[in-house]
Amino acid sequence: MVKSLTPTTLRRSGQRGFTLLELAVVVVIICILVFLALGKYLELLVDVERSTMEYNLGSLRSAVTLQMAERLVKGDQAGAASLVGSNPMRYLTEAPGNYLGEFDSPDPEAMEPGSWFFDRKAKVLHYRVKNDRYFEPGLPPPPQARFEVRAVLGGEGDAAYLAGVTLAPLEPYSWLKEPKR
Description:
Elements: H1 7-13, H2 20-73, H3 77-81, E1 99-103, E2 115-119, E3 124-128, E4 135-136, E5 144-154, E6 161-169, E7 174-175
Parallel strand pairs: 1-2
Antiparallel strand pairs: 2-3, 3-5, 4-7, 5-6
């Protein structure tokens, strides 16, 4: 004989399904947790981009400094002076994977966000920012940071001499903790 299941028999046997209210509460809790996790994930992506950009800048500055030191040790003043305005990516043993190369007057808007590229005509290294809501550029869009190899002079007036080179930003920029509205 087949026994029919009724709400009364289900309660007696200890088995019970979810009510619509319980299911709605669980769905709301899961949605809140996903929302919080996605926000934290986006913050981590921004931190990774910022850290990677700053790491690359540190490597580039070291490479330019080493090139300058090598030329000065060899007594090659002309070679040292040729570093000014050069592409610092040339001095790395291996360029970052997101380096697109050298271009003549590139359109930054056309470049892939999250990448480096060098403008041969302007002699400027660009970083095109990916997470632009967390970046305060010194330029109008697209969001980017621009750098150039500059001379560091020692002495004054007629006694000035090339004391070194530096990789310096063309405009101030900053990474934000909270996204722009």
